[in-house]
Specification:
The complex is a heterodimer of chains A (about 375) and B (about 240). Chain A contains 14 helices and eleven strands. Chain A is of the alpha/beta class. The two termini of chain A are about 35 Å apart. Classes of the chains: A alpha/beta (about 375), B alpha/beta (about 240).
Chain lengths: ~375, ~240
C-alpha cells in the first residue's frame, strides 16, 4: 500500500501541462505523522511518496516524516520505503546525501532535449528550466545511479520524443519512464508523428538491446510485459483507492493524485481513517467494463482502467480517454513487432530481462561486483 | 484533442509471435541465452544456474485426480454476424462472466480467485464451420491460462467466450461475409480435452433473440443462464464427492 503525501500544492515552476491547481497549502507535521500512522496500520511494506506541487519546497517536512517513520519501524511497524518526485531545480548535494543515507528513491521530471523541455517546463516568468537541470541531473545519478527520469511527451513536443530519450540515456539515466500528456490537444497529425517516433524508438531499443545494454524504457517494457506476464499485468492494473491513496495537505484522503481537492472523491481523513464504503463504491465503479472496450481484442493489455489518466483527460474517471485508446492502438503492435524480432534472434538481454524473474538481482550483482566503485 | 476522436475497439488482434511466460518456461534452455560479457563472469553464471534450478517454470501438465466434468447446457452458445445476420448477437465479456462465475461458486465455498496455466492440446476454432468445404479446425498445442483457479480444491474454470473462439483460430483468413461463433461446440471439445477444469460458455442471445427485450435485459437473462451452468457444475462436484 502506498500513501502519496501531497506536501504542498505550491510549486516554484509553472509547467504548462501541469494539472495541479497551484496554491499555498502546506501539510503540517501533525497531518504527515497521522498519514504515516495510517500507512503503518495497513500492513507491511508501506510506501511513503512525497509529492506536490514541488515537494522539495517542504524539505524539513520530509526529514521530520522520515525520522518519524523510522522511529515506528524500530518499534516493529512497517517497513517503510520512500520516494520523492521532483522537478529537480531544488536538488542539491546535501539532500542527495541525505536521500542516499535514508534510502529515499528520487524520480526526476525532465522532458529531454532543451527545445522540448523548455516548451513546457518553465519558471513563472515563462523562461525554460533546462539549463537549471543538467548539472543537478548528473549529481543525482552520482548519488543515485538507478534514479528514474519521468519524461512527459505533450503534442507540441512529440517530434522530439526519440531525441529526448537519447539525451536522457546519454546523460546516464537507465530507467526512462515516459508518458504522453493525455490531456493535451492531440490531433490526427500529432498522433501520426507519435507513431513515427515510436517506430524510431523501437529501432533504438532494438539496437541497444542487441548491444546488450541494460535499460528500462517504460512504454515498450509495459506493453511487452502485458503479453509475457498477462495474468500479473491484469492483476496489477489500477485498483482505484486499493493500492495507493493520496493525502491532501489538510489530511483529506483521495483515491489517486488526480482527485485531490475534489470533495466528491474524498474517501476519508488521516485522523478518522479510510471511509471503506466510499472507497469500495469508487473501486466498483472503476471496475465496470466500458463500452466499447468490452469487445476490444487488446483490452486486457490496455491501460483503459487507469482512473487517474481518464480523469485527467476526460474529466470523468469512468470515461475512457480517446487519446489513451489511440495511444494503445499505436503502441501495442509496435511493441509486439519489436519483441518478436528480439525473441526470434534470441537476443540474450531481451530474454533475460523479460523472462528471467531473477534478472534484477543478476543485473544488480553485475553492477555491484564489476562496475560500481 | 480532435472533436471527432473516438474510442475504437480493435476487432481482431493476431497472437504475438513471442511466448508468454508460462509457454517460455516450458523451454528451460531459453534462459541459457546469456549476454556475452556474462560468460567471462563465473559468479553470474552460478547465480543464473541457481535461478534455473529453483524452478521458475510455472507451467504444469494436467493431472487427472478427478473425472472430466461435462459442460452443462444453459443457453444456445451460438451466434453469427454479418451479411444477412443483421442483429448483432449479445455476448458476455470475459470480465462480466468471471464475476458471475466467481460469485456463484463462492456461495458453495469454491474460491476461483487464483490463477493457473496448463500445457496441452486444445481445440482450434473456425468462424466458418457452417461452410461445407471448411475443414475440421483441429487443435492447437500450447498453454491455456485458466480464468480462475481454486488452490485448495485444485480445480480451475475456463469460460469460453466469443473472443476465445476468435483467438483460437489457426487460420484467420476471411472466407465469407458472415462469421459464425460456435461457442458451445468449442466448450464441449475443450471439456473433452481437459480435466480438473470446469468449462462454462457464453450463453449468447442470438437464436432466441427476443426483440421485446433490451440488450441489458438479454444480458441479465444470459447471466442467469450462466449461473445455472455454474450451479449444475457445483451439483456435479458434490455428486463426485469433491465438495
Amino acid at each position: 500500500m502506498h500513501f502519496t503525501l501531497h506536501l504542498t500544492d505550491a510549486c516554484n515552476l509553472a509547467c504548462r501541462y501541469c494539472y495541479v491547481k497551484q496554491d499555498t497549502h502546506y501539510m503540517s507535521e501533525e497531518v504527515a505523522r497521522a498519514a504515516v500512522n495510517l500507512a503503518a496500520g495497513t500492513g507491511s511494506h508501506c510506501g511513503i511518496i512525497f509529492f506536490g506541487g514541488e515537494p522539495l519546497l517542504c524539505r524539513e517536512r520530509i526529514v521530520e516524516t522520515v525520522r518519524y517513520a523510522e522511529g515506528l519501524q524500530k518499534d516493529g511497524k512497517g517497513p517503510f520505503h520512500y520516494k520523492i518526485t521532483t522537478n529537480g531545480t531544488l536538488l542539491d548535494e546535501s539532500f542527495l546525501r541525505y536521500s542516499a543515507e535514508h534510502e529515499i528513491f528520487i524520480a526526476l521530471s525532465h522532458d529531454g532535449i532543451q527545445p522540448a523541455h523548455d516548451l513546457n517546463r518553465v519558471h513563472s516568468d515563462g523562461t525554460g528550466t533546462f539549463a537549471d537541470l543538467e548539472a543537478r541531473a548528473k549529481l543525482l545519478l552520482q548519488y543515485r545511479p538507478y534514479a528514474p527520469v519521468m519524461m512527459t511527451v505533450p503534442p507540441n513536443a512529440v517530434s522530439h520524443y526519440l531525441e529526448g530519450v537519447e539525451y536522457l540515456y546519454n546523460l546516464g539515466f537507465r530507467y526512462l519512464i515516459c508518458t504522453i500528456d493525455y490531456a493535451g490537444a492531440w490531433t490526427k497529425d500529432t498522433l501520426e508523428e507519435l507513431e513515427r517516433q515510436y517506430q524510431l524508438l523501437a529501432k533504438w531499443y532494438r539496437e541497444k538491446t542487441l548491444a546488450e545494454e541494460k535499460f528500462y524504457l517504460s512504454p515498450f517494457e509495459v506493453k511487452i510485459s502485458s503479453w509475457i506476464h498477462r495474468t500479473h499485468y491484469r492483476a496489477e492494473r489500477c485498483e482505484l483507492g486499493k493500492k495507493q491513496i493520496s493525502v491532501a495537505p489538510d489530511g483529506t484522503l483521495y483515491p489517486c493524485v488526480q482527485f485531490v481537492g475534489e470533495e466528491a472523491y474524498c474517501i476519508g481523513n488521516v485522523f478518522s481513517g479510510i471511509d471503506e464504503a466510499r472507497r469500495q463504491n469508487l473501486y466498483l465503479l472503476n471496475e465496470e467494463e466500458r463500452e466499447p472496450c468490452s469487445g476490444c481484442a487488446i483490452r486486457d493489455r490496455c491501460n483503459h482502467h487507469c482512473a487517474c489518466l481518464n480523469k485527467q483527460a476526460t474529466g470523468s474517471f469512468q470515461t475512457v480517454s480517446p487519446v489513451l485508446c489511440a495511444h494503445e492502438r499505436i503502441l501495442t503492435p509496435i511493441a509486439d513487432r519489436l519483441a518478436e524480432k528480439l525473441y526470434k534472434k534470441r537476443a540474450a538481454m531481451f530474454i533475460q530481462k523479460q523472462y528471467n524473474d531473477m534478472f534484477p538481482l543478476l543485473s544488480l550483482a553485475e553492477d555491484k561486483l564489476f562496475y560500481q566503485k | 484533442m480532435d472533436k471527432e476522436m473516438e474510442l475504437v475497439a480493435v476487432k481482431t488482434y493476431g497472437k504475438p509471435e513471442y511466448p508468454f511466460k508460462e509457454e517460455a518456461m516450458c523451454s528451460p534452455d531459453l534462459l541459457k541465452a546469456l549476454p556475452k560479457r556474462w560468460h567471462a563472469k563465473p559468479i553470474l553464471c552460478i547465480l543464473l544456474a541457481f535461478t534455473a534450478a529453483s524452478g521458475l517454470c510455472a507451467c504444469s501438465e494436467i493431472q487427472r485426480p478427478y473425472a472430466a466434468a461435462p459442460i452443462f447446457e444453459h443457453g444456445s452458445g451460438r451466434g453469427s454476424f454479418g451479411c444477412v445476420s443483421v442483429a448483432a448477437p449479445v455476448f458476455l465479456s470475459e470480465e462480466e462472466a468471471a464475476q458471475v462465475i466467481r460469485e456463484e461458486a463462492l456461495l458453495q465455498g469454491v474460491d476461483f480467485s487464483g490463477s493457473k496455466s496448463i500445457c496441452g492440446e486444445f481445440p482450434a476454432t473456425s468462424l466458418y464451420s457452417f461452410l461445407e468445404e471448411e475443414p475440421d479446425p483441429g487443435t492447437w498445442r500450447g498453454t491455456l491460462e485458466l480464468d480462475g483457479y481454486d488452490e485448495a480444491l485444485g480445480i480451475g474454470f475456463e469460460y469460453v467466450s466469443k473472443q476465445d473462439v476468435i483467438d483460437w483460430q489457426k487460420d484467420d483468413t476471411a472466407k465469407a461475409s458472415v462469421e459464425g461463433y460456435d461457442i458451445k461446440g468449442t466448450a464441449e471439445r475443450l471439456a473433452d480435452a481437459v480435466d480438473n477444469v470446469a468449462v462454462f460458455y457464453d450463453p449468447t442471445a442470438a437464436e432466441d433473440f427476443d426483440s421485446s427485450m433490451s440488450r441489458d435485459e438479454l444480458k441479465e437473462q444470459m447471466k442467469e443462464q450462466l449461473r445455472e451452468q455454474v450451479r449444475d457444475f457445483l451439483t456435479w462436484l458434490a455428486g463426485e464427492g469433491i465438495i
